[in-house]
Structures are given as structure tokens and as C-alpha cells.
Design a protein that fits this description.
Elements: E1 2-4, E2 7-10, H1 16-19, E3 25-27, H2 41-47, E4 51-55, H3 68-71, E5 72-76, H4 86-89, E6 90-94, E7 99-101, E8 109-112, H5 125-140, E9 144-151, E10 161-169, H6 183-188, E11 207-210, H7 221-238, E12 242-245
Parallel strand pairs: 11-12
Antiparallel strand pairs: 1-2, 2-3, 4-5, 6-7, 6-8, 9-10
């Protein structure tokens, strides 16, 4: 799931469907009821998600060299219509009346519309996304993009969980920015990088925390994260700002 420039692209299952441009629900978190791509029954049927990617559970897979074809299972929405959360997020199409009802019924054809969320607000996704994007813009000082996931429990008494997977400055159109760095700027710099994320000025930076790529062990990612959390906590308590340097996408590469 990935909000992009004020627009949310949301799909059931793995984020593979969104990242590869397959069918998903696209809406503005400020106006979740407005869905131009689903203005008619025909539009809904043509643009709704037909299948999703799920993790294979209960099978032993090779962990050497991550291959999503080994870990993911492609399932049809119709085959999983009775499963949770497919059932919760589906509407029902009646071919006799050519009508879609915003609730699941075993007497019709399931259509994944997500109507229960942005329309009937069983979970305040638009409000959460809007708040997080505003907070991200404030703290980063620029437009941001976010990847998130929602865990819907099969227990009706349990609360759903919203998890932020990634929050970063918006990268779209960055190649159009005209930035000039003079020789004077280079001579005055104490550190130069040709590959960096984000920027700031006059921020009273004090410390550098570096995870060396040559000594970083992906198998010990959890241990590394705990160590960084301890360092982060101590520096925050001391009121010291710092820059974190390390290999990108830890735990996935």
C-alpha cells in the first residue's frame, strides 16, 4: 500500500500488486468517497482487484536467495471469498439486477471494493493516513510518501493494527530539480556523498552513527536494530542530533 502525492493505492495481500501497477483501489485520503474509476457498475467490475498475493504458510522454503515466487501464492478473490479479510472487504454483484451491494453475500459474486473501509469507515484509514502524511511533511520539511500495512484480526473483538513500513521524502520528479554545488561549497564541506536521502540546513548536528556495510550481517538484523534503538534512545535523552548511516533496505537485502 503506497500513498503517492496525496493519493492512496491500496490492495489486498502483498504489496506486489501495488508496486507493479496491477489492479488496486485508488483514492484521496481527504475525499475517500470520491472514486472516479468506479462511477458505474461496469467500472467497478473492470477495475476491481481479481486476485491477490499471499504468503505460503506451513511450507518449508529455501532461505538462500530470496525468491518471491517461492514465498508467495497467487489466489483468486473468488476462491478466497469466504476467508477473512476478503469477506470483510468485499461487496456482492447481482448479475440479474446488474447491481453491486456494499456487503458480502454468498448468493452473489464477490467483488473486492474495500467499501467497508473508506466508505463505511470500520477502520479510519483516511484519517490515519492524512495525519501521518502531515506529520511526515512537517518533520521532513517536504512532501513524503509512505508504505503501510493493515492487519485485520479474525477476532471481531480485536482491534485492527496499522503499521508504517516506510516513510521517506517524495522522490517523484527529483530529476527535474536544478541544484548547483560550487567548488567553494565542496571545499567548505566536511562530508560529501553522491547518494543520500533527505537534506537539512543549520540543524546543529552532533554525532554520526554508522553501520558498516562490510561488517553488516543480514542474519543479525534484529540484533542490530536493538543496538541502534539503544543508541537512539540515549542520544534523544541527551538532546543530541545525529545522522544514521548504513546499508539500504536492511533486512531485505
Amino acid at each position: 500500500m503506497k500513498p503517492d502525492d496525496g493519493i492512496v493505492n491500496m490492495a489486498l495481500g502483498s504489496g506486489k500488486a501495488v508496486m507493479e501497477g496491477e489492479r488496486n483501489l485508488r483514492f484521496s485520503p481527504r475525499f475517500p468517497e470520491i472514486l472516479p474509476q468506479r462511477s458505474t457498475v461496469k467500472d467497478v467490475l473492470e477495475n476491481s482487484q481479481r486476485y491477490f498475493y499471499a504468503l505460503k504458510m506451513g511450507e518449508t522454503t529455501c532461505t538462500i536467495g530470496i525468491n518471491e515466487a517461492v514465498t508467495l501464492l497467487k489466489r483468486e478473490i473468488t476462491d478466497a471469498a469466504g476467508d477473512h479479510p476478503v469477506k470483510l472487504l468485499s461487496s456482492t454483484y447481482d448479475p440479474v439486477e446488474n447491481h453491486i451491494r456494499d456487503a458480502y453475500s454468498s448468493s452473489g459474486h464477490p467483488v473486492l471494493t474495500f467499501a467497508s473501509m473508506p466508505k463505511y469507515k470500520i477502520f479510519p484509514i483516511p484519517e490515519i493516513i492524512t495525519t501521518l502524511l502531515e506529520l511526515g511533511r512537517k518533520e521532513f520539511g517536504c512532501q513524503v510518501e509512505m508504505e503501510f500495512a493493515i492487519d485485520l484480526s479474525t477476532d471481531p473483538k480485536a482491534n485492527a493494527r496499522f503499521a508504517v513500513l516506510q516513510l521517506r521524502p517524495m522522490s517523484a520528479r527529483e530529476e527535474m530539480l536544478d541544484v548547483e554545488i560550487s567548488n567553494h561549497d565542496r571545499n567548505q564541506a566536511f562530508c560529501i556523498s553522491h547518494l543520500a536521502l533527505g537534506n537539512t540546513i543549520n540543524c546543529d548536528m552532533v554525532d554520526f552513527v554508522c553501520v558498516k556495510p562490510e561488517s553488516f550481517d543480514p542474519a543479525r538484523t534484529t540484533e542490530t536494530a536493538k543496538q541502534l534503538a539503544e543508541i537512539n534512545s540515549s542520544l534523544i535523552r541527551a538532546g543530541r542530533k545525529y545522522i544514521l548511516i548504513g546499508p539500504g533496505r536492511w533486512g531485505s537485502e
